[in-house]
Give the backbone structure.
Amino acid sequence: MAAASPRPVLRLRGGLAVALAAGFGLVAMGWPLLAEPGGVLTETTSGPWLFALLLPLVTAVALVQLSDGGMDARAVAMLGVLSAVVAAVRPFGAGAAGVETVFFLIVLAGRVFGPAFGFILGNTGLFASALLTGGVGPWMPYQMFASAFVGLGAGLLPGRAPASRGGRAAELAMLVAYALVASLAYGLMLNMSLWPFVFTQGELAYVPGAGPGENLPRLVAYTLATSLGWDIGRAVTTAVLIALTGPVLLKVLRRTARKARWL
């Protein structure tokens, strides 16, 4: 029986680059919870556009650092191929009734190739699909970073590539459970792009400068009232696609990684 293969490990510089980009993403998406009263980010347009302007710079830094610290030409080529596949399959879901067909591939690739690869694939895959489907707008940076966190989280899941049938079944169950949680979290993060501007009064409204203690419950209530049905649809779709395609795709991706000597 073949020994379990180790999973990719982030080198120091690459890990720092991803941590830097991820930290920026969290702060940029969470600006409504962090903005001080009267601060520039409490303006109705400053936060999203600042996010959009800085996103290419942060992504470029992450790509350059990772290329220097752990991603070679073969990994970049695989990133390009998978980004194109993500862009190609997205129109099959198009978000109708919450049906999304892109996240299962991001989760599986992040699991096999590691957190850095998953983080960048989430960014590049959603960017390519937005260009293909005409989905470019102020919401796009939120989609890119939120999906990047989905890939990052998949790469950080514990355990190595299992060698036994029972181990593979347990891994698949873990990925299905992760897909359910990550899909709901994606919806919560994505609501940051609309929630501060949709309601100006009421229990669901964003209160500028009130801090996370008051605004976070409002964000959760807004999500439950407006997007939970879509989020559940996304979670079920992603989980089902992972359950159906995971056994084959995990094997194919790992074989590719071994031939390229990434594992």
